[in-house]
Amino acid sequence: MRKLYEQWPFNFGAIHEQDFKKAKIVIAQIPYDATSSYGTGQRNAPFAIINASRYIDELLDAHEGKLMGLDPMDVFTLDEIVVSRNSVPEAMAGIEQAIEKEIVSKNKKPLVLGGEHSITFGVVKALKKKYKDLSILQFDAHTDLMDEYEGSKFSHASVMRRILDLKIPAVQIGIRNMNTEIEKYLAKNPKQEKNIYFAPGLPDADDVAGKLTKNVYLTFDLDALDPSIMPAVGTAEPGGLFWNETIEAISKISKKVNIVGADVVELCPIPGFEAPNFLSAKLVYEIIKAILAK
To answer: Mind listing the pLDDT tens digit for each residue in 243-269?
Structure first.
C-alpha cells in the first residue's frame, strides 16, 4: 500500500535523523524573557524560529529530510532549556550550567535561540571557561551598557556591561540609540567607544576582525535590523541594518575569526505574521553556514 503521509520532526530544519555525536553545532532553545521591559513575548521565539525553519525552501528537502547545502548531521537541536524563575542571577547561572554541560563540555558549538538578550551573559560565561581569549561580536540597535535597568544588573539592557566586566572585549555594530549614562561610561572607557559602529551602514570586515580575538562569540539582537524588515522585536529602532549587507558582513568577518558560538535573540513573534519568524530562521541558517565555512 502506498504511504499517504509524512512525519516532520520538530527541530531546526526538520532534520529526520539527528546525531548528537556527529553534530558540530548544537541548537539550544532558551524561552526566557523575565527582564523584558517594553515589547514582550521573547519566550515564544524559539518555538517560532524552529517552526519557521521547517518551511524554508532553501533549507529543507522535505522528501529527503535534510538541510540543503549542509550535511544534516552537522546540526542537532536540543529540547528546550527551562531555567529557574526564582531570580535573574539564578537564571543566568542555570543557562551557564546548561550550555557548559550539554554543549561546550561535549566539544560542540552552541547556537542559542532566545529569549531576551540577557541570556547571552550565561552562554558567554560557559564559553569563557574554554576560550580564554574570547571576544564578542554584537549586532544590536543598543549598546546594552546600562549598569542596571529597572533594578536589575542582569537586565537585557545591561548584558554587555556585565560581559565587559568579565574583561571580555566586544565590538558593537548597528548601534543607533544611547543615553547619557552610556555616553559617560564610554567617555571613561575610550577603547570601547572605538569599538562601536553606528548604523546606518556596516564597517569594513578587516577593521572589525582587527579588534576581535581569534575566538569570537556572535550575538545578534534582531533589533539591529531595520523595523521595515524586522518589526517583531522588543524595541524597534528606526534606521537599522538591512538583510543583504548584514549577511555579507557576517560572512566576511567569519572568514577572519573563529566563531565558537552564537545566539539570535529578542524576536517577539506577532500572532498571524510569519515574515519575522521566517527571517529569523533564515538568519540562523546563514550563521550556521558562516560557522561551518570556517
So the answer is: 999 999 999 999 999 999 999 999 999
